């Protein structure tokens, strides 16, 4: 069973500011509760082909994985994928402007878990959705307080 979780939020900051912050993976540990660290394998800034090592904690487990940026359109979208491990994942961000002072942001996680992870996909989807809602709320608070 596939995992496909879409979460969205409106942040009262301009698209340029939100997209610039989120599209810099070095900022992820500040607003993602479960992400412990991010290390660049390629030179910043982010671009198609960039590779980054992430360390996270999810469902009580430490997870280390490498994301590769497969698509980046500045101020519009960022798509990253990982292929290693029992749960290959794609994470994408999209930003749009409902007006000139706020940003509608979507965060989508999708993948095809295998083995036990495949059996637990519905539970994983629910856990990812809860974590994403919490993280986007944290991002909103962080950016709106600037």
Key traits:
seven-stranded antiparallel sheet, 28% helix, alpha+beta, 146 residues, 4 helices, 43% strand
* Low-pLDDT ranges: none
Shape: globular
Helix content: 25-40%
SS class: alpha+beta
Count of β-strands: 7
* N- to C-terminal distance: 41 Å
Strand order of the largest sheet: 1-7-6-5-4-3-2
* Strand percentage: 35-45%
Q: Please state the CA-atom Rg, rounded to the nearest Å.
A: 15 Å
The biggest beta sheet reads: 7 strands, antiparallel
Order of SSEs:
EHHEEEEEEHH
Please count the helical segments: 4
Rounded mean pLDDT score: 91
Summarize the structure in words.
The longest helix is centred in the C-terminal third of the chain and has 24 residues, at 121-144. A seven-stranded antiparallel β-sheet has the order 1-7-6-5-4-3-2. The chain is built from four helices and seven strands; from the N terminus they run βααββββββαα. A hairpin with a 2-residue loop joins β6 and β7 (102-111). It is an alpha+beta fold and 146 residues long. It has helices at residues 15-22, 28-31, 115-119, 121-144; strands at 3-11, 35-40, 51-58, 61-73, 77-82, 89-99, 102-111.
């Amino acid at each position: 069973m596939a995992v496909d979780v879409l979460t969205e939020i409106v942040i009262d900051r301009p698209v340029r500011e939100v997209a610039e912050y989120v599209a810099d993976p070095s900022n992820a540990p500040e607003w993602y509760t479960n992400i412990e660290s991010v290390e660049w394998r390629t030179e910043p800034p982010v671009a198609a082909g960039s590779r980054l090592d992430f360390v996270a904690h999810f469902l009580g487990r430490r997870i280390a994985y490498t994301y590769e940026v497969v698509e980046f359109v500045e101020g519009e979208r960022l798509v990253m994928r990982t292929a290693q491990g029992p749960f290959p994942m794609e994470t994408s961000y999209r930003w749009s402007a409902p007006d000139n002072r706020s940003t509608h942001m979507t965060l989508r996680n999708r993948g095809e878990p295998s083995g036990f992870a495949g059996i637990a996909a519905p539970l994983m989807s629910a856990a990812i959705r809860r974590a994403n809602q919490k993280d986007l709320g944290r991002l909103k608070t962080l950016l709106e307080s600037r």
